[in-house]
Amino acid sequence: MKSVCFIVQNPYEIDIRVRRKAEALVAAGYSVDAIALRSARSTEKEFTLNGVKVYTISLGKMRGSLGRYFFEYVAFFVIASLKLASLMRKRHYVAVDINTLPDFLVFAGWYARWKGAKLVLDMHEITPEFFMSKYGVSEKHWLVRLSALLERISFRYADQVLTINEPIQRLLESRGLDRKKSTIIMNAADDVIFASETRPVEKGSAFVMMYHGTLTKIYGLDIAIEALAVARKDIPNAEFWILGDGPERRGLEELSDRLGISKSVKFIGRVPPQEIPNWLKQCDVGVLATRSDVFLDYSFSNKLSEYIIMDKAVISSRLRTIHHYFSDNAFAFFEPNRSTSLAEQMVRVYRDPALRERLVVRAKQEYAPISWSVMKERYLELMNRLSGVACGVTTGAPADDPRLAQLADVK
Q: Distance of CA 249 to CAs 252, 253, 365, Å?
């Protein structure tokens, strides 16, 4: 049995992208381990989750200052390097899937690479743009220039590079990434898990718009609440349900109070991942009010695919990457950072139920080539090739699935 190891500086159980890849490999017959941060709520040094053996590192994830970022990145790098070297002597991995940030984490695989394992660098983020957005600096700032250098050195060291969408792929190619050694694996929800939700739901008379995820400034929930205050003049039964928690919650609750719509904005709190599909069934529209900047314009929220799978119309910021994959006939786009534009789209989709149905149908059509069932096959094909496994033994869509031909427009 071929063995693969994952490295991620995040608690494994909450990193959905890493879990999807790892569990796909388990289902395809691989033995899979993972080296990850220990959750703040856990004391387990080791545990097994859906067939994946997870080794945890107790380090914390406080972040904030640049110095704290540097300390956490370097500390995790050193510990993960030693742990991987120790495991490699016993497990003889054929590949190590290393997930950013930081980009230089790929060098933690030096010993495994020396012993013959292939290194796959999954670039979850674009670090230079991340720092430009977080610290409000220009591309000429020393931190941005250093991160661009480390990015380039890192993807050159890797045997294969995974990117998360076509616009980011093109950006990295402009900075030296070899397209021949890179593969796009989109962030998408597991179709099977979400589509299997069959519990009946009794929906009330309210027109429910919903967001689920972390409550941070970048996701523009304040913009959505301000938009709701305007839209309620035309949608008296409108409600905005917010699932999740985060540093912005108190400020958002205070904003709702100031605008006089606290009864229409419902803060549900944290919801277990397995419960998300049932909550989504209770809404009419999904709202993604993500702000726009040099970093966020390249983002592609995993929530998009969840709304689409659950047959919900989506109101979204017109961000570069999202609009690259979805047309105006698939989503109700509004101009980023503008609550009045979002309010107009709220009223528009409320007044026209037929429009909501058309958006759902078209979104599903445009989503099909980048769904997880397709991305999974692409990932498994790559890992089979790297590990010397004959192609065509993966699960899911067959090799001649017509959807795979559509990927020519995405890759």
A: 5, 6, 35
